[in-house]
Amino acid sequence: MKKLFALALLGAAAGTRLVADEGRIPISTPTTITKSGHYIVTRDLFINGPGSILAIGNNHVTIDLNGFSLQSLNGTDPVIRSLGGFGSLTIRNGTVEGGSAGILFPAGGTRVVIEGVLVTGADQDGIRLNGVNDFAIRRSIISIHHLDGIHVEAGNGYSEVVGTIENNLVEDCGGSGIEILDGSGVGVVGNRIRGTDQGIALVAPAGCLISDNTVVAARGDGIFIFDDLTRGGAHGGNRLSGNAVSGSGSVGIAIGGIETGGSSTGNFAAA
């Protein structure tokens, strides 16, 4: 059954379903994508066994979930995953439910866009990107995950990652709402986060922008930035502006380690 998203940020995603036409490749069963192209899901998909519902094995792939739901009761594999360091990949417009992770990029990639999706009920992270550069996660709802809602890290070697996380709702996660390790120039802008452990957590960031986010009822710190000098790369120069934090179990905005060249303006933190 089609999911009806009440929130305006998913309004476009809940629009009229499209049928596959020339140039769109229909998906009606769990699939490993081996060719570049524009794919469109044509029905709800469900699995209760090993494997992912969609596995991406090439560059230049767009997947339009077309308002449908992908649901997995398998807690050992992600619902959607990349099979390698592929690039120019887009996932949009539908629901991803269950799995070990909702959407997983485990081994690099570049130019990855995730937009207009509802990701819910993962046994681990909702969305996890390892070593992905030039990424965008936007206008999505990420909720009810055992670990982080959105987790981004450089992976082995501590090379830095670049991207944007903007205009999402992240809620009810056992870990951080948004967690970034070794971000360089990452923008975390206009997100709403509630009922997570840390609201927004950045470890060893450099030149990141944390702006106009709202964090409510974090069990730990609302916004946490820690300059871990054991991790490689340049650190510091991060900017915090216009964030509103309330109801945190620990500190509203916490900055630890050695943070140089950064700025903090117009932020509001309340008990």
Query: What is the mean predicted local confidence, pLDDT?
Result: 89
Kindly estimate the percentage of residues that lie in beta strands according to DSSP: over 45%
Q: What would you call the structural class?
A: mainly beta
In helices, the fraction of residues equals: under 10%
> Which runs of at least 5 residues are low in confidence (pLDDT < 50)?
1-9
Biggest sheet record: 19 strands, parallel
Rg, alpha carbons? 18 Å
Find the count of extended strands (DSSP E, 2+ residues): 29
Overall number of structural domains:
2
Q: What is the molecular shape?
A: globular
Number of helices: 0
Strand/helix succession: EEEEEEEEEEEEEEEEEEEEEEEEEEEEE
**Separation, N- and C-terminal Cα atoms:** 41 Å
Please tag this protein with its features.
271 residues; mainly beta; Pectate Lyase C-like; 2 domains; 19-stranded parallel β-sheet; 10-stranded parallel β-sheet; 29 strands; 47% strand; disordered N terminus
